[in-house]
Amino acid sequence: MTMQIADSVSLSASEAKARAKARAHAAAARDNLRTEPRAVRIVIIALAVMFLTVFVVLPLVVVFAQAFSRGLLAYFAALAEPEAMAAIELTLIVAAISVGLNLVFGLVAAWAIAKFDFKGKTFLITLIDLPFSVSPVISGLVFVLLFGAQGYFGTWLRDHDIQILFAVPGIALATTFVTFPFVARALIPLMQEQGTQEEEAAISLGASGLQTFFRVTLPNIKWGVLYGVLLCNARAMGEFGAVSVVSGHIRGETNTMPLLVEILYNEYQFVAAFAIASLLAMLALITLIVKTVLERHLDEGEDASDH
């Protein structure tokens, strides 16, 4: 027993030395970067600022300028239109459904991948990353092939008077498929880094599986969960391609906010289009701020676990 404790202590000490050495190398690399000539640093920073200004700042400025071009009354009047209110409501409903489903899936998938070894683990990780590599339009077409009138389940759905496509269920399914990697991908590396020692200790002390999850695992990953939920929600509200395929563009019924922006813009209703677009832009800005805060908490958690 004493030998095992000594081995574990020496192992943790060696890990601490390795991490300290890695930090020293990183600090040296940063110092080397700072020794670049002043002109080179100025050019690199100027290029970065120019790129962000052209591709990020200016588009946001244009969106808000166009949205408020006719004053606050016109802006709020555009948002108060029944069609706009229906699109906002549908977007919130679909986002709530997809985030809820992906939260459950992400927790289960991350738990399985990080805590257990099994055959097909690499394949499961590949499947989780699939929506990142498949076009959202293709994702929408898959659901058309499955639930459309000529699809695999189309006849059965029609006979039982169940509407999937051109309705909320189809939009929610397409959005869930496109967004399901976000929660899992935020949790998998975090749970892998934490290991299984704390869970094993809790179980050895008599805790049940649920008690271990809610009292040990979940508090350790809460910031990762919020981070994944945040990214999933932002993508769900802004999804266009997959939703466009399965929605049918029924005005006042199946148009989400991104779809309505396109329709209003094509009809030359620029104030209304940019008013709704400004809501999506504000969502992006809020997401960016909250994302920065959550990343800081995640970094603090990693530093605390290192010590």
UniProtKB/TrEMBL annotation:
Residue stretches in coiled coil: none
Molecular-function GO terms, alphabetical: ABC-type sulfate transporter activity
Family matches, as Pfam families: BPD_transp_1 (PF00528)
Compartmental location: Cell inner membrane
Keywords: Cell inner membrane, Cell membrane, Membrane, Sulfate transport, Transmembrane, Transmembrane helix, Transport
Membrane topology annotation: Multi-pass membrane protein
Gene3D superfamilies: MetI-like
InterPro entries listed in its UniProt record: CysW_permease, MetI-like, MetI-like_sf, Sulph_transpt2
Superkingdom of this protein's organism: Bacteria
Chain segments annotated as transmembrane: 42-65, 85-111, 123-150, 162-184, 270-290
GO cellular component: plasma membrane
Matching SUPFAM superfamilies: MetI-like
Annotated ABC transmembrane type-1 domain residues: 88-291
CDD domains attached to this UniProt entry: TM_PBP2
Function: Part of the ABC transporter complex CysAWTP (TC 3.A.1.6.1) involved in sulfate/thiosulfate import. Probably responsible for the translocation of the substrate across the membrane.
Subunit record text: The complex is composed of two ATP-binding proteins (CysA), two transmembrane proteins (CysT and CysW) and a solute-binding protein (CysP).
Protein name, entry field: Sulfate transport system permease protein CysW
